Amino acid sequence: DGWDSCGDGSDERNCDSSECVMKGGFSCDNERCIPEERVCDGWDSCGDGSDERNCDSSECVMKGGFSCDNERCIPEERVCNGRLQTFTSERSIDCMYTSL
User: N or C, fewer C-beta in 10 Å, the chain?
Assistant: First the structure.
């Protein structure tokens, strides 16, 4: 069902994708099942990034994330931090930096 009921994630590994979706979850590429509300929220809940790929920009922003040009969603606090996001391979660009 996408919820870690065991506390170690063992109940959500190697899940049948149809069973996961039927129970209202999201089937990750690595066969993990996560709750649907964790999809396109800016956090890699799957561990392989599949829950943050091909996200609708409005859904990403609505959930507090930043919609990248490559249709990935990253946490807002990772925007304009001057570091390459290894998950998205996007650099913090088009950011204004000011010094006090």
Answer: C
